[in-house]
Design goal:
single chain, five-stranded mixed sheet, 423 residues
Length: 423
């Protein structure tokens, strides 16, 4: 099969870069070509480029970066699918369960495959190997969980013999009857487990009254599943739910969205994890619906309540406030949105933050407008500001001068400017 033009160019560049002399000659020719283009006016320095040309170049860079990421993702998906298809055609590999070291003479360990394996293939190979070989000659011991935490419930043991408390069941230990008296607590604080569907169906396959086979229907909604059990012999019926419902929303779905949102995880990464584990989940639209209708309003409400408590505490202490402000934007170049934060220096706590949009007052005045809004909010709450530490900006200096507030410069910005000048 003939190679493409791109592959031919790639091979040529690899041969050229492998030779130091050819590499040096190529770089020298590139520098000479750049000098000639500068003399002819085809190349411009960053100072000579207009603002619109800068924005156009940044847009081209972003699009090129997006294309590179899409191509990389497609290549990874193609390689993953090829590995899965190759593993499906191969014979299953015998994998023995892990055993603890023993004082007896150990036998030679089985050879493991060094190829990449997916979780589904590994589980299928283990199950197939155990089915073919039968029960292992020596059952592996239970692993002791050192960070074991007991369940919040009252347990009474009814046994004739006095048994010592242990988290590992002994071989000759007799079964003990345990009665659980679980205290009621909020559903959101309950402990969660991963349960297989086959294990759940075993609970509903037979009727608890007459022990006859039953008709079972399941309904799923994200992480939620319910089973409708009906016995045609004794007319027994039961409706079982895996998690409580808040209105029509399963509580587990909502808690999963909150955990993803509050911990700063990526929903798509969590979705990949669930697919690899074959763990049922919900779509991105459901996650955004939960965030838009419940999570984000809860964050705003919590911030307003805490802010009022901080401002009330500053009022009780009295005196003027010494603050420091800075802004974070969504991008370093053409910023569309920014968040200006004002921090109290003595307590090192945030006392106010303002969201600013560039099209409201222009890109060069976002920081000044954000600081002005923070100061206005403090004036409404009858709090006086003594001094503010910010970056060196003429517009900010004018605003603070009008309000008779001392302005101090941030040393970090000076050091950053010195570094840029040195470069």
């Amino acid at each position: 099969m003939p190679i493409t033009g791109a592959e031919r160019q790639r091979l040529y560049r690899a041969r050229r870069d492998a030779d130091p002399e050819k590499r040096a000659q190529y770089l020298e020719r590139a520098r000479e070509r750049w000098r000639k283009e500068r003399e002819l006016g085809k190349r411009k320095s960053i100072k000579e480029v207009s603002e619109s040309e800068k924005n156009l170049k940044r847009l081209q860079w972003r699009r090129a970066q997006a294309r590179r990421r899409a191509a990389k993702k497609a290549a990874l998906d193609a390689s993953f699918s090829s590995i899965c298809s190759r593993k499906a055609e191969e014979e299953p590999i015998a994998i023995t369960p892990k055993k603890y070291k023993s004082t007896k003479k150990s036998k030679p360990a089985h050879a493991h495959s060094k190829e990449t394996q997916t979780p589904d293939n590994i589980c299928a190979e283990i199950e197939m190997t155990w089915n073919n070989q039968g029960t292992p000659r020596k059952r592996p011991r239970w692993e002791v969980i050192e960070d074991w935490a007991p369940i919040d419930c009252d347990i009474s043991l009814q046994s004739k013999e006095n048994t010592e408390s242990s988290s590992v069941p002994h071989k000759d230990s007799a079964p003990v009857d345990i009665e659980f008296s679980v205290e009621e607590r909020p559903a959101s604080n309950n402990t969660k487990y991963i349960v297989y569907e086959s294990c759940l169906r075993q609970l509903f396959s037979s009727c608890p009254v007459c022990s006859m086979p039953c008709e079972v229907k399941s309904h799923r909604m994200g992480t939620y599943v319910s089973f409708d059990q009906y016995c045609s012999h004794c007319n027994y019926s039961r409706d079982w739910k895996s998690q409580p419902l808040v209105g029509s929303t399963p509580l587990g779905n909502f808690q999963m969205s909150a955990a993803i949102y509050f911990t700063g995880l990526s929903f798509y990464q969590v979705e990949k994890f669930c697919k690899a584990l074959q763990l049922q989940s919900f779509k991105y639209d459901t996650f955004r619906k939960h965030a838009r209708n419940y999570l984000e309003p809860a964050i705003v409400h919590k911030w307003k309540v805490d802010q009022q408590q901080i401002l009330a505490q500053l009022k009780e202490e009295g005196g003027k406030i010494k603050g420091s402000g800075d802004m974070w934007t969504d991008s370093a170049g053409a910023a569309g949105y920014g968040c200006y934060t004002l921090t109290h220096q003595d307590s090192n706590t945030i006392i106010d933050l303002q969201l600013v949009q560039s099209n409201e007052m222009g890109k060069g005045h976002m920081k000044t407008d954000g600081l002005k809004r923070c100061l206005d909010h403090l004036n409404v709450n009858d709090l006086e500001v003594d001094s503010v530490v910010t970056e060196s900006c003429p517009q900010t200096q004018e605003v603070l001068k009008k309000q008779n507030i001392a302005h101090f410069y941030d040393t970090r910005s000076f050091e950053k400017g010195k570094l840029i000048m040195a470069v």
